[in-house]
């Protein structure tokens, strides 16, 4: 894995996410170069300096985009605003819960993403899916937000298979739409819905919806919406989970029989055990201020409350319910989630008619967590498998 900051995995991971999700290497280097000394202090100290550097780089792009717009150069402006949205999102991602500028920066990132989409005419539409949230005062109507990317080459009235993409612990729908998945699926005749499920993105930051380990409570309403979509073939809807989505996705497929297949990009078979290991400082964290972050994501009062909520987050006794094709992929050198969990997930898919386990190694590339070190080959393989199973175009 390319580590811009050799002694700091977490900071390097965010830098790598930017580079593999639409960032420009020259811009990223300009933002990161002044941070080399700060990065040596560890994951948490210096994150405000990270925020200032990346915010500054994003704002410079916004200024250049405004110059483009004054000249009528809409597409150039849109591309710059798209990268600015990404850099603002990376800066926000690195801050602790409670950082005073975090919510404003997140909202600004969303606005830039939407403006970029409009200016470039990108194949991507924001959607809102009805979702009744549980509440102490009774169920409250609300919604989950998503980004819908239409399969290429659809004739008017034609329905296409669709892949529902589920976030990990700290990713967002905008981040994943800018990954290789934003184009690879559509090229293969698969539509895609990138979802901010409870505990992620808009659902957490703007809707106050914490993570729900019982995936089916929100996956079923999403499926209800998808099967009514005029461009979606209701018999060919698959699910793909990335990182912690490697827990959410198998559970969704297990309890929602309308899914035609499932896949994980990074298995997460026993997340409760991962938390116990992290308490012992085993493995790497995905974000700074990790324990504050997970308490926020799960709506926990304190660390003990979070650990109690995480206790049920494993797939033992669940996967034998899956009776559709399922793909398990994992990086050989995943430093966040050990490879053994991929073998556990695969081993328990006893009733899947087509279960496959693929471990990305040095030859294939993509050996790190969810192949963030080299997502191209892994992403193409996953897209091909989904297209084969769902009837797309390989």
UniProtKB/TrEMBL annotation:
What's a single GO MF annotation on this record?
serine-type peptidase activity
Output one GO BP term.
Answer: proteolysis
Tell me any Pfam family this protein matches.
Answer: Peptidase_S9
**Record-annotated Peptidase S9 prolyl oligopeptidase catalytic domain positions:** 222-391
**Known Gene3D superfamilies for this protein?**
acylaminoacyl peptidase (1.20.1440.110), alpha/beta hydrolase (3.40.50.1820)
- Which SUPFAM superfamilies did the record assign? alpha/beta-Hydrolases
From the UniProt record, list the coiled-coil ranges.
none
Stored PANTHER family: CONIDIAL PIGMENT BIOSYNTHESIS PROTEIN AYG1 (AFU_ORTHOLOGUE AFUA_2G17550) (PTHR22946:SF12), DIENELACTONE HYDROLASE DOMAIN-CONTAINING PROTEIN-RELATED (PTHR22946)
Descriptive protein name:
Prolyl oligopeptidase family serine peptidase
């Amino acid at each position: 894995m390319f580590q811009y900051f050799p002694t700091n995995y977490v900071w390097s991971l965010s830098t790598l996410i930017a580079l593999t999700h639409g960032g420009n290497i020259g811009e990223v280097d300009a933002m990161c170069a002044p941070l080399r000394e700060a990065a040596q202090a560890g994951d948490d100290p210096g994150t405000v300096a990270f925020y200032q550097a990346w915010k500054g780089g994003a704002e410079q792009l916004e200024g250049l985009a405004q110059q483009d717009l004054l000249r009528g150069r809409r597409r150039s402006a849109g591309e710059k605003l798209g990268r600015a949205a990404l850099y603002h999102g990376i800066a926000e991602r690195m801050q602790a819960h409670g950082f005073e500028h975090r919510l404003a920066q997140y909202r600004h990132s969303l606005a830039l993403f939407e403006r970029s989409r409009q200016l470039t005419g990108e194949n991507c539409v924001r959607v809102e899916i009805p979702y009744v949230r549980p509440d102490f005062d009774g169920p409250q109507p609300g919604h989950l937000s998503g980004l819908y990317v239409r399969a290429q080459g659809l004739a008017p009235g034609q329905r296409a298979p669709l892949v529902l993409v589920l976030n990990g612990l700290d990713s967002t729908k905008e981040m994943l739409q800018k990954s290789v998945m934003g184009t690879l699926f559509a090229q293969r005749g698969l539509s895609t819905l990138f979802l901010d499920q409870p505990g992620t993105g808009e659902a957490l930051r703007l809707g106050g919806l914490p993570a729900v380990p019982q995936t089916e409570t929100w996956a079923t309403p999403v499926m209800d919406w998808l099967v009514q979509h005029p461009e979606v073939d209701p018999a060919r809807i698959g699910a793909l989970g990335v990182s912690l989505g490697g827990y959410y996705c198998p559970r969704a497929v297990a309890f929602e029989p309308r899914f035609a297949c499932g896949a994980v990009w990074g298995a997460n078979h026993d997340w409760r055990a991962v938390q116990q290991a992290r308490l012992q400082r085993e493995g790497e964290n995905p974000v700074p201020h990790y324990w504050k972050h997970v308490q926020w994501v799960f709506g926990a009062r304190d660390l003990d409350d979070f650990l109690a909520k995480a206790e049920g987050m494993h797939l033992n006794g669940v996967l034998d319910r899956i009776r559709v094709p399922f793909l398990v992929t994992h990086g050989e050198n995943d430093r966040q989630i050990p490879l053994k969990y991929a073998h556990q997930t695969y081993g328990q898919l006893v009733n899947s008619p087509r279960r496959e386990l693929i471990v990305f190694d040095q030859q294939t590339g993509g050996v790190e967590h969810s192949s963030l070190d080299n997502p191209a080959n892994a992403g193409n393989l996953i897209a091909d498998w989904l297209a084969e199973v769902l009837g797309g175009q390989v």
